[in-house]
Each structure stands twice: as structure tokens, then as C-alpha cells.
Amino acid sequence: MIACSGDFDQATLEPLRRACARAVADPAVRRIVLDVSRVTFVDSSMLDAMLHLQRSGRLVLVGPLPRLLAQVLEITLTSQPFTIAGSVEEARTL
Asked: Is the pTM of this model over 0.90?
């Protein structure tokens, strides 16, 4: 599980990218649970990182989705490919 909190933009995204790259590279990781419930700001770089994780076929977002993130997904028409769980426990069962 990777817990995200605060603002995510081009200047602040590198620690998340590193954590995600490790998770994707690890064959023992069956599911990447990205808790985005405490994200306060996102831009297109965060969306790009999430879409990259989605292509791994193992991503589950944990919400509730913050209003701004939900708006970004809606505006960019990218909400469909994501699996969204209401809690970490629910994400582990998907």
C-alpha cells in the first residue's frame, strides 16, 4: 500500500514515482493499493503516474476520492479504467 497525502505536482511527485516504480518492479506485489483519500491537490503529472500504474494491471485506488482528484478524472475522461475501493480492507479483497 502506498499512502498519498498533500499536494502532488511535477515538483513534489518524485517520492511517489520511486515508490510506485519499486512496487511495479517487484513480482511479489500482486496488487498496488494507492490511498488517495488525503490528497489535497493534483495536476497532470499525478494523473500520468496513476495511469502508468494502471497499465501494470494491479492498481486499486482507495478513496473516497478527494473532490479535486475526482474532477481531474472527470474532466480528462479517465475515471473508467480505475478500480476504486472505499477502504483499504475493500481494496485487499478485489
From this structure: no
